[in-house]
Amino acid sequence: MSSPILHFISPPIPYFVDCGHAAYSAGDTHISRNCIGVFDLIVVEKGVLPIGEDHLNWELKEGESLILRPDGHHYGSAPCTTDTEIIWIHFQTFGSWKECSDMNECLDNQAQLIENHKQKAYLNHADVCSIFIPKHMRISGRAKEVLDLFFQQEHEPQSMRNWKRQASFQLFLQHLDRDLASPSDATAIHIAEQIELFIRQNYAGDITNPLLQKELNYHSNYLAKCMLKAYGMTPMAYLKHYRLEQSKRLLLQTGWPVVRIAEEVGFRHVSHYSACFSKKEGISPTAFRSKFTRDR
Length: 296
What we know:
Layout: E1 5-10, E2 15-24, E3 33-34, E4 39-46, E5 48-53, E6 56-61, E7 64-68, E8 73-75, E9 84-92, E10 97-100, H1 103-108, H2 110-120, E11 129-134, E12 136-138, H3 141-152, H4 158-179, H5 183-202, H6 209-216, H7 220-231, H8 235-253, H9 258-264, H10 270-281, H11 285-292
Antiparallel strand pairs: 1-10, 1-11, 2-9, 3-8, 4-7, 4-9, 5-6, 5-8, 7-12
Helix pairs in contact: 3-4, 5-7, 5-8
């Protein structure tokens, strides 16, 4: 049975709060808690931990992990049958997140989750991306090596320890995110990232599907499938999305006229730019600028 997936929008990247060890003797039960306000990542180092969340139960074995939600009821679903040791990490996010049943649901809801994120995190003119973390999984060797760093830093001064643990946590999440992908998904994601990089570096120019096919040496239909899997949109839809996002930056950070901004981000006609912007944002570029700026 496949695991549900926790879908986070970044930036900001989910951030480390606290970590520690816990031990259970045979007959002990995990404490019951309700809405603790942070995500609780549990990794079993030894034994078996019976644990539940909102009427769903797991038996976590050595090397397995589970992420408990900040808004759920967590409890020991049964007493431990053997001596058990776990690592726990608390983390939280400022942005939008959603628990989905599988990757297809994640991708189907990606565009809406990004829009929610822009309102919640006030990142309506920043590049954002998705982080996919399995709720229940077996930790890979690479991820476990990073996890061990959390406790090797115990003898560091507090100020340095906090910096290093945050960096280690982000690397740990990166491993969990990448370990989720199957070999075919990993290939598609790699190609999609090449497309995204090409678009970012050349978005002001005349980018077309035939050009992408020539540059990346894959048929345009396959490139579209890769982008849909990784970003939830085709290359041309992503190009328009990226141009509009860059135009928001220029609207807020420069005094350039709208005509110049449209040209700078790759729109050949200001009327087309204004129509695309208004359809996506619900207001014109000029109204968007006025909303966030004012004359001294």
